[in-house]
């Protein structure tokens, strides 16, 4: 510290020195000023060094920021990958506790594959796969270690589930989860914020299978589409009572994703008249390739969003869309809705007015019921009848759990998805690591070691092909165009010439020859008109029937 009594003489000496040299040159004055100020600089510099804090581990790495500084966006923070050897990791699979859930997260075949890849062990709760027709004996033959519920929850480094763990009430599955473990499951974080907070408090790294982006590389991980596809196949089969091939009804499918296309194909195979709708322009060819009629609104707006999903449309588009749905509901017998928007509740597309406009006995199949439903009258888990119209999501036992009705098939699909997803997270050979630079991992991660990770921006949709511009008629083509009078004159001349030729041939050859000529011409005209109106794919079957009728097999 500097003594004030010491500073006063020094300052006084400085002032005296400056006054005594006032008559000297400017250069000499500056030199004397610097000479007298130098004694002040040294003790003050020593005092500043004494006030500097001792750098800690944090302050040595992160520069000080005042209150006005702007922190970097959370999306720019990418923690380093800490890969762990497969040989040190235990994968756990627990029994699903939801009332009607029959699926299991891992099948014996995929458990054997994970063990073959080098994981320490696969720990499965006893009876976890019984409802899906996977016995404990089958798991033991695959090399799996069977254990009790508490053992699986507390000893698993990576826990695999189908449904999100419960976190309320006396039986909280999240509280059973091992501190710092990795959870892979369906989570629906946008609707389950309290669950996300609870998982973060346990230091969990949570990956949501329902948030995997729809990109080419992630198709083998897309469990959501697989489950909804199973549901659409089963529900479409239940909705149509006629399997005779006679068109039983008109079907409207809203949403041409995996589930919607599956429903269109199934309904078309059963002979129904199918109409499909989607806000994405790329869905037109897919619907038409399955034999469905693609309907659209008059407003030109592409609904292709990031990651292969649809985006939220404009107000004008939604109004035109609702008008179109109202017109269709008056005509169709079955409406199947599959519309989902990632990170948000399912959009409401079927209003009460549309339901009232449908014919009595019609059916609405809401495959988005578990995510809020596309119909305003949908109640998850229940069958609702409004003005004679049945609104369903599944069977009378579980309207929101269609995949569980095909528990074996759904479990196999999900097990394949989740196994390939785990094996893809391999920054180094035979090591598991969560790399946020990976587009699939970044899109699906919810929490990372206890920190809630912001939702990743969805990948941009592929660019749409521009429509080819119609060539404008040039001046030469316009000059060669004939007028209506010229066209009529040519037609009259052609008909008159043909009739004159026929009369001349009749006079020259006789009635027998002319009869044969007219018969051949009539047969050729009928055959041409018949074949021309048939799709090219049916030409061979048509000729087979023709040959069979004429006796030329």
TrEMBL record:
Ranges of residues in domain Alanine dehydrogenase/pyridine nucleotide transhydrogenase NAD(H)-binding: 238-393
Q: What is its EC number?
A: 7.1.1.1
Q: List the catalytic activities from the record.
A: NAD(+) + NADPH + H(+)(in) = NADH + NADP(+) + H(+)(out)
- Which SUPFAM superfamilies does this entry report, sorted A to Z? Formate/glycerate dehydrogenase catalytic domain-like (SSF52283), NAD(P)-binding Rossmann-fold domains (SSF51735)
The chain positions of domain Alanine dehydrogenase/pyridine nucleotide transhydrogenase N-terminal read 92-231
Q: What InterPro entries has UniProt attached to this entry? A: Ala_DH/PNT_CS2, AlaDH/PNT_N, AlaDH/PNT_NAD(H)-bd, NAD(P)-bd_dom_sf, NADP_transhyd_a, NADP_transhyd_a_C
Identification of the protein by name: proton-translocating NAD(P)(+) transhydrogenase
